[in-house]
Design a protein that fits this description.
The complex is a heterodimer. Chain A folds into 3 domains: about 5-175, no CATH class; about 195-230, no CATH class; about 230-390, Rossmann fold (3-Layer(aba) Sandwich). Chain A has 16 helices and 11 strands. Chain A has helices spanning about 5-10, 20-30, 35-50, 55-70, 80-90, 95-100, 105-120, 155-165, 180-190, 205-215, 245-260, 290-295, 315-320, 330-340, 360-370, 380-390, and strands at about 145, 150, 195-205, 225-230, 230-240, 265-270, 275-280, 290, 305, 345-350, 375. Chain A has a 5-stranded parallel β-sheet with strand order 6-5-9-10-11, with helices on one face. In chain A, strand 1 (about 145) and strand 2 form a beta hairpin. Chain B is α/β, with parallel strands linked by helices. The termini of chain B are far apart. The chains are: A alpha/beta, B alpha/beta. The interface of A and B includes residues 52 and 217 of A.
């Protein structure tokens, strides 16, 4: 049961294991939902998906599964007849039930139906035919998917349900990241600055022993605050254009940094930093943040990390109006200098292989702007950058 | 079965998630923007199912062991120095944690593990066995504590830390979406039944506009809106103050905005508005 759904989810890279599948079946057995595809959608989401960043993948997987479901043989042995019958009967009016008896009872009807289904090759093309083709005909009500979930009968409800996953409301959450960030995390770990602040929660053994001894053996407990990572990081990501091919690496870096630092802020820019940045790439035209505001907001103790290939026309950095996207009054150099002047520690990570750097004039300009602190986006390069930052 | 209560509106999806978790006796992990009623869910669930609620609020210093039990070695040492009789029985110094208390309950209780992401990164891993088998071993007294009734466990998270996969596998998961306007009206009707319809429409408009404001640091959420409405009703703010957006700054905005940068942003916008008039 539901093996196809499980495999579709796997195909769409929703991380789920056999355990979740067994859970799903167990929940259905308990009868939490019955014969309602919208509820089934939500229930399977609750059971199979463990993080909202996977909701979007789940939605598209479910849409695919839902479409595909109607192409599968409806009367496979998977569905206990009982399920169908129960739901079926509940949908019939008294009049229809009488009529049914006249036709030789439900058993006979089911048999005829099965035979007819076997003949009907056409059904593969459009399961829709049966979905909501009038509740009156007993066959019309048979808009089941193979796993005992009602598809049709109530046309409106069905439409609404489909919309739920076709809306894909959670697209923004999906960072499409891969596990494999462990190396990067380890490199980032070096950027830790432990500080003891806050309430005293931990036993300070040395002081306790000393003062207990001074007390003539009467216990005198001393506490100290626990240490934690106090480092603050601000990241600027170059996005779009020539960066597209490095998206995967950048995502890994982002996801690793996200878990490693408690105080992490990030902004996007394109090619070179100009007067405005943005946080949400889908709304980059409408939702920008002034660079001046960023500088005002974050103290100079934030460690700044640029991620970008710095591959562009040199005029994009040096000339007013050099931006490929808009008219910038001041050249990119000035905005870069604003950042490097304000923040104490700045480094740049470049996904371009280091041996290519000398062939791009813009890279050497950028490199000079960040005081030669440009490093390749490799585990080793990150390690070196972190060393500069700390 | 869990349903919306007198002062809590649960969406269909949330109800389904809770019921599924109850049916299969699995912990339910709830995420969502701050102020969308994650913690309140456990309280309302306890009310609606009429069972006892144990709340375990997690702090950055909380250890998993504290939920099970703590061995108060320090007071035992002190007692031994003072020659107290209690010192011979170690169980006098075992302090029961929330999990233990919940396990001992005869009636199925609810256990809320609030803001699990605040704890150390290893915290959820330390609870795997306890949540799975609903039992643990007390080393000091050599006894196994087993749940008499598997408690309904509600876990909330604000996404500050990622939770380990092994832990997630043992939970059901639900993300509370921010309510839309229609749901918001329902929620407000539950909290402030007396609010006039037109005033409500205006406040919702201002509220959702404010949430859309670019550059806002902490978007106001449901609980802030409800507080704000309370103030508006208490102060009897004239409706036209809200209607005429250009007239002035949003009245009593302090209830909605909790960040001084957001407040100054709003003041700046109001200033620009005045100048443009």
């Amino acid at each position: 049961m539901f093996i196809d759904l499980f495999l579709t989810l796997k195909k769409h890279k929703v991380p789920c294991s056999l355990r979740e599948l067994l859970d799903l079946i167990a929940v259905l057995k308990k009868g939490v939902v019955f014969a309602n595809v919208e509820d089934f959608y939500h229930l399977a989401k609750v059971v199979m998906v463990k993080d909202e960043i996977h909701y979007d993948k789940y939605d598209s997987a479910f849409a695919e599964y839902f479409d595909g479901v109607q192409k599968i043989d409806i009367f496979d042995n998977l569905v206990p007849d009982e399920w169908l019958r129960k739901e079926f009967e509940s949908q019939l009016s008294q009049e229809e039930k009488d009529k049914l008896k006249a036709l030789g009872g439900l058993e006979a009807l089911m048999k005829t139906l099965k035979e007819r289904l076997a003949e009907q090759e056409k059904r593969h093309a459009g399961g829709n035919k049966w979905v909501g083709t009038g509740g009156k005909s007993p066959f019309g009500a048979y808009g089941y998917n193979p796993e005992g979930i009602r598809v049709g009968q109530d046309g409106n409800r069905n439409n609404r349900a489909v919309k739920v996953w076709d809306k894909r409301e959670f697209k923004n959450f999906d960072q499409d990241r891969e596990l494999g960030t462990r190396n990067i995390k380890l490199a980032l770990k070096k950027l830790r600055k432990f500080a003891r602040t806050g309430a005293s929660e931990k036993l300070d053994i040395n002081t306790t022993i000393r003062s207990t001894a001074q007390n003539g053996g009467l216990l005198d407990v001393h506490m100290e605050p626990e240490r934690h990572n106090a480092v603050k990081v601000l990241m600027f990501f170059d996005i779009g254009g020539s960066m597209d091919e490095y998206i995967h690496t950048c995502e890994e870096l982002f996801s690793a940094a996200h878990t490693e630092f408690k105080h992490l802020e990030f902004y996007y820019f394109h090619n070179c930093v100009y007067e405005s940045l943005w946080k949400d790439n889908t709304r980059r035209r409408t939702n920008t943040v002034d660079l001046a505001e960023v500088i005002r907001t974050f103290g100079s103790d934030y460690k700044v990390l640029f991620v970008g290939d710095a591959t562009m026309g040199p005029y994009e950095i040096t000339a007013p109006g050099g931006s490929v996207e808009h008219w910038n009054k001041k050249p990119g150099v000035e905005y870069m200098q604003c950042i490097t002047n304000h923040f104490n520690k700045v480094a740049w990570l470049n996904p371009q292989p280091e041996i290519h750097w000398e062939y791009h004039h813009s890279i050497s300009i950028m490199k000079r702007l960040v005081d030669d602190r440009m490093f390749p986006l490799t585990v080793d390069g990150i390690g070196r950058a972190i060393k500069e930052l700390s | 079965m869990f349903n919306s209560t007198d002062n809590y509106i649960a969406s269909d999806e949330l109800r389904l998630a809770v019921n599924a978790a109850i049916a299969l006796e699995k912990p339910l992990l709830i995420k969502g923007e701050p102020g969308t009623g994650k913690t309140q869910l456990a309280e309302e669930l306890a009310k609606s199912l009429n069972c006892k609620l144990y709340q375990w609020h997690i702090k950055s210093t909380t250890k998993a062991q504290q939920g099970l039990y703590e061995y108060d070695a320090v007071s035992r040492l002190r007692d031994s120095q003072l020659g107290d009789e209690r010192v011979h029985d170690i169980s006098n110094y075992i302090v029961k944690g929330k999990l233990w208390q919940a396990f001992e309950e005869e009636q199925r209780p609810i256990l809320l593990i609030d803001e699990i992401d605040k704890a150390d990164i290893e915290f959820p891993n330390d609870l795997l066995q306890e949540l799975d088998k609903m039992e643990f071993f007390v080393y000091e007294t050599q006894q196994v504590i087993k749940a008499k009734q598997r408690p309904i466990i509600i876990i909330t998270s604000n996404n500050e830390k990622e939770l380990p996969d092994a832990f997630l596998r043992r939970c059901f998961f639900h993300y509370i979406k921010f309510p839309n306007k229609a749901e918001m009206e329902q929620i407000i009707a539950v909290h402030h039944p007396k609010v006039k319809q037109d005033l409500l429409a205006q406040t919702l408009e201002v509220f959702f506009d404010l949430r859309e404001l670019p550059g806002i640091k902490k978007k106001p959420s449901t609980s802030e809106l409800i507080d704000w409405l309370k103030l508006l009703v208490a102060d009897d703010v004239a409706q036209d103050v809200l209607v005429n957006k250009k007239s002035d700054i949003i009245p009593l905005f302090g209830a909605l905005l909790k960040n001084e940068q957001d407040v100054s942003l709003l003041e700046k916008l109001a200033f620009l508005n005045r100048r443009n008039r």
